Amino acid sequence: MKTIPYEAIIFDMDGLMVDSEPLWLQVERDFARARGGDWTPSLADRCVGRGLANTLRVMHETFGFAVDIERDAAVIVDAFIERVGDLALKGGCEEIVDAVERRSSRVPRAVASSSARKLVEATLGRFGMLARFDALVCGDSVARPKPAPDVFLLAAARMRVSPAACVVLEDSLAGVEAARAAGMRVVAVPERGDERFSELADAVVADLHEARRLLGLD
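User: That's the sequence. What structure does it adopt?
Assistant: Structure tokens below.
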């Protein structure tokens, strides 16, 4: 397997490091149901990786109930954090982070997520992962969510590396598009098949174990 060159690694979180999409669906469904809407998996799929503001706008357009982006996003985030103990790491997550730390030449690493900082910190903290990254960039740190490149460009700046030196690990199309727009290499680890991943990403792999080998981290 041919490895991908890089000097720094940027990880997405939801759906990539952490198996969080089922919990997101439950929390968002409860929120919509309390207001008379039926938030289905297909609706949720349309919003993966694009941030809560986008999810709330889609709910408003689909169901017609009024939303207050700041207030309602906070409600959903708090409901998610209350259940953060239900989460599990994705297979290969701990192994790839361990392998990066074992490299003889140090590799800067960051997490760049569309989620709010308090949620990202609660989630990574639940697994003892917070201190293992050099930078943490969240959706409330930037003006534009994925698929805009803002979170990835800020992560590169905080690691003091050029965007072209970074490789991004992503599970969502929005994230892959954002990494490509940032001028970074990107390895897709999708939770569901879509031919657009192979059109956009430098490589598509089945899981983080395969991603680790592709990055020469065995």
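The mean pLDDT is 95.
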